[in-house]
Amino acid sequence: MSFPKGFLWGGATAANQCEGAWNVDGKGPSICDHSRGGDVKTPRIFDKIIDGNQYYPSHEAIDHYHRFEEDIALFGEMGFKVYRMSIAWSRIFPNGDDSVPNEKGLEHYDKVFDACLKHGIEPLVTLSHFEVPMGIVNTYNGFSNRKTIDVFVKYATTVMKRYKDKVKYWLTFNEINFGMLPKGQLKVLGIYDEDAMKGKITNPQQQFQALHHVFLASAKTVIEGHKINPEFKIGNMIAYITMYPLTPNPEDVLLTQQYENFMNNFCADLQVKGEYPYYMQDYFKTHNITIQCEDGDEKILKEGTVDFYSFSYYMSNCKTAQDSTELTGGNLMGGVKNPYLKASEWGWQIDPLGLRYTLNKLYDRYKIPLMVVENGFGAHDELIDGTVNDDYRIDYMRQHVEAMEASIKDGVDLMGYTMWGPIDLISAGTGEMKKRYGFIYVDKNNDGSGTLDRYKKKSFYWYKELIASNGTVR
């Protein structure tokens, strides 16, 4: 059997995309309660007025907050070994920096984890999944303020202490490298900047200083988490954008290497190796960036390295130094179209072999256990007679499972796979429901209509059989 015994099969969600209940039981507002695509000045709304008010899809989402027992039971029926989810920071500390936590928020996640354990599912908890409290944005301008480090660590250690006997696996920051991109600054760093919302970076000093603070917050969380429970396994999370040179032109090859280092490797090198990599020196010099370090920062980064490397993988793209109009979409960022690949309805190129390539590349670089914590196929699904015949999703996933199997045979230490997302949820980028990923169909539409009833798709039964066979029956 290619997949090792104990391989963690499961699925992944984010609180802001599935929970709803945005102001229930003492929860404070986060950036995702006010924004579409991370822009606090552009509400997540569609052209619909309900009871005289504009409609925000994420405010109700799929109401997982009230239906988690039903949803987790369905995950259990599929045989999930692990459920990757996030805790909403502002559900625990409504303003982000409150003196005491919100007990109702803590009690809610107690119930969620109890439901997971009841069905034999290990929770894998993301501490910050694009859910920075608005209080942190308004008071500190996110992680641009060094004080936010300790504010975050207080939140992280609060939940780690509370759930130390229920949760073993943790991730610090979701897709931390998106903080490198203009529109990712608010999502990861909690910095609101008008120019960044328009795709421009006018203050790189602030951006990379804030990233430094995020690296420290992550490292401190790893250090303190291991004190709370030495059995904790704490990982990073990278949005891995696999890139190829469009041609063998050395200019294309060099550009691809440079962009790989900047986008894919920089944040991971800091979290896995615990030090700033050499290749960023020229970038910092060119952009007049000087990282302000305090005594002890280097020691914290070195001691707070992660136990495993996790990442999202949806597609690949190409890079070229030449002008090109053949562009393709992607996870927050696109690239140049690869003529050898097909794409989804949203323009994301489908590249299963690229996952094997990526796994080998990462394991060679870091030599610590890897985990694919996001991978899936968004599509317009049609509910007919209580089900969805989503053979296209099964085909996509089968090919990626085969790529993982091949990488394990290559010698990669792969510990698990959580597909995105096992139940239909709100899109992070557009706030829409019509882009569906799940094995479970949720009767909810872009305009808010629908019963919220759950229906099993054809892929539900396929994934159930896959897990039961530990990846051998496909």
From TrEMBL:
Keywords per UniProt: Glycosidase, Hydrolase
Gene Ontology cellular component annotations, sorted alphabetically: cytosol
GO molecular function, one term: beta-glucosidase activity
Keyword Nucleus: no
PROSITE patterns: GLYCOSYL_HYDROL_F1_2
Cited Pfam families: Glyco_hydro_1 (PF00232)
Keyword field contains Iron-sulfur: no
GO biological process: carbohydrate catabolic process
Family affiliation: Belongs to the glycosyl hydrolase 1 family.
The protein, known as: Aryl-phospho-beta-D-glucosidase
Organism name: Erysipelothrix larvae
Organism classification: Bacteria, Bacillati, Bacillota, Erysipelotrichia, Erysipelotrichales
